[in-house]
Amino acid sequence: MARIVHVDMDAFFAAVEQHDRPELRGKPVIVGGSAASRGVVSTASYEARRFGVRSAMAAREAQRLCPQGVFLPVRGSRYAEVSRQIMAILRDEVASVEPISVDEAYLDPSGGDAVAVAARVKSRIREETGLTASIGVAPNKFLAKLASDLGKPDGFVVINPEDVDRVLLPLPVRMLPGIGPKSAGDLAALGIHTVAELRSADRGLLGLHLGRRAGELLRLAHGEDDRPLEIEHETKSLAAETTFSVDVGDRDVLRGQLHSFAAELAGRMAAAGLKARTITVKARFRDFQTVSRSQTMPRPVSEAVELAEVADDLLSRIERRDLMRLIGLQVSGFGEGPRAEQLRFDFAQGMGEVQGGR
Ligand code: TTP
Ligand code: MG
């Protein structure tokens, strides 16, 4: 049974630009690194890929291959916003979602009709964001990702167990995860170019050249992959902290730092729709003694000014007046609210997000 769904947006950053600026549709759009700069390409629209432009290529090289390309800067926060919208659709359709990157996730409709779920997800993404996703449905993660790749762009590919050999055997080995140009070269030197050739290769020879990876590779060559989805638990707390380059004792400086953490955490809570009941200030002195003071509020708070006020109070409850090497602010005790792995896609994200254990 095909039961895992893989979703991957097509030319994601470039597609968002073409969506937001319709005059760019149908044009070769290259995001990242102006042609004049030494930057690298983040991604290119499929129109630009026809000229050979690829992710991670030097912008100068892209300019040479595609002089008529429209070069655009990366607008991270806009892509993060669209990413959150997409992940919200996925979570609305299935309980088990494993986000892999800003534009990619695995879904496990556990028991539900995976193909029907996949079709619904694809059309909702199209309707609600105006963008195209490529979707793969297959018995496991490896094959589902392969299926979405094979259909790109705007693809919808289902690999059923009886299709696995037909799909896999003719593929070049470099389409297997973990086979980079170097391993592909090593295998080519052994006369192994396709998955079929890999399967029938001499085991001893493979072991000699690939070491412990040989077994894993052979399992993939047979379409076997038993990795479960890694589902994150709800966020239990969020924190921001800093280690000073020069130890600090001045309480005004420490308060100022806590106020900026309060603003940062308020922003992150707003993005995730969270309110906190408990606020904690942590301090580490130069001799590494670490102390914390907590306050649990009668009602949940989310505003920066409220957090800052409580943080001031907590700081004043730390009696030891020596120089500190670290100060931090943490919020916890969240009620019901959207799961905050969304925050992972906030490109401007600060530090110190503390997640519940896996
Ligand atoms: P990908 O999903 O790898 O690429 P893509 O969505 O642009 O194109 P497609 O999936 O249709 O092949 O990456 C998602 C985004 O991540 C991409 O739009 C830009 C960013 N990215 C980089 O910034 N640098 C990179 O090297 C890669 C691979 C991606
Ligand atoms: Mg993509």
Summarize the structure.
The chain is an alpha+beta fold and 358 residues long. Helix content is 38%, strand content 22%.
Describe it for me?
The chain has 13 helices and 13 strands. It has 358 residues and is α+β, with helices and mostly antiparallel strands. The strands form 3 sheets. Strands 5-6-1-7-8 form a 5-stranded mixed beta sheet. It has a 5-stranded antiparallel beta sheet with strand order 11-10-12-9-13, covered by helices on one side. Strand 10 and strand 11 form a beta hairpin. Helix 4 packs antiparallel against helix 5 and helix 12 packs antiparallel against helix 13. The chain is globular and about 70 Å long. The chain starts with a strand and ends with a strand. The structure holds thymidine-5'-triphosphate and magnesium ion. The site of thymidine-5'-triphosphate has 15 residues, from strand 1 and helix 1.
Alpha-beta classification: alpha+beta
SS strand fraction? 15-25%
Ligand kinds: thymidine-5'-triphosphate, magnesium ion
How are strands sequenced across the largest beta sheet?
5-6-1-7-8
What would the principal axes of the Cα set say about the shape? globular
Contiguous low-pLDDT stretches (5 residues minimum) are 336-358
- The counted number of beta strands is 13
Q: Mind summarizing the main beta sheet? A: 5 strands, mixed
Radius of gyration: 25 Å
Percentage of residues in helical conformation: 25-40%
Count up the helices.
13
Distance between the termini: 27 Å
Question: Helix-strand pattern, N to C?
Answer: EHEEHHEHEEHEHEHHHHHEHEEHEE
Average pLDDT figure: 89
